[in-house]
Every structure is written in structure tokens, then in C-alpha cells.
Amino acid sequence: MQNIQDVFNELQELKQEKKEIRREYTDSLKQEQEYQEIEEQIKDLRDKKKQFEAMVQQNMGKRYEKLEQLNQEIKDMEQMISDLAINNLMQGKNIEVKDKNNTQYEPQYKVTLKKAN
Q: pTM of the prediction?
């Protein structure tokens, strides 16, 4: 098994190389006049899309507010499920979840690292 520090260092190097190549790619695109024109058209269309979305949201009123509320509740519940699953795992409990069609679900765990303050 590899050392986590070695893998982390290799990951950092790959990310740096990706960043450099991405920068070259972006610079190359910026040099193309047609690309710049297309970017401007896309920006205009996005603005127009946002105007339509705002208009429809306003027309829907309370119903759209309910949608936003449901989205937040779903996000909160998903976080709660994650917390409960981790707690059960730490206590050595088996995690079994089934939906109304009796389909069984199993947890998937993901560890990410962020800079410590």
C-alpha cells in the first residue's frame, strides 16, 4: 500500500501540470477572434435566459419559493443521511437502506482534503 503523503504529492504535481496546460489552452482561445465573438454571443444569450427565468419565477410566485425550499430541505436531509451513515460506521453498525420498491442502497464514502487553517 502506498503512503498517503506520496500519493498526495503526486496529485499536487498532476494538478499543477493540469493548471499550466489549462492556462495555455485558455490563452490560445483568447487569441482567436471568432472565439471572442462567440463568447460575446453566449454572454448575451445567458443574460436573456436569466431574464426569462426571473420572469417565470416571479410569475410562479409561492410555487417557485416552495421549489427553493424543497431543494434546501433535500440538501439538508442528504447531509443528515451522510452524518448518520458515518456515525453508524464508526459504531460498527451495518448500514441498510431500502426504497419503497425494496431496492437496497449501500453507502459510498469519499474523503477529500482541504487546506488546514
A: 0.67
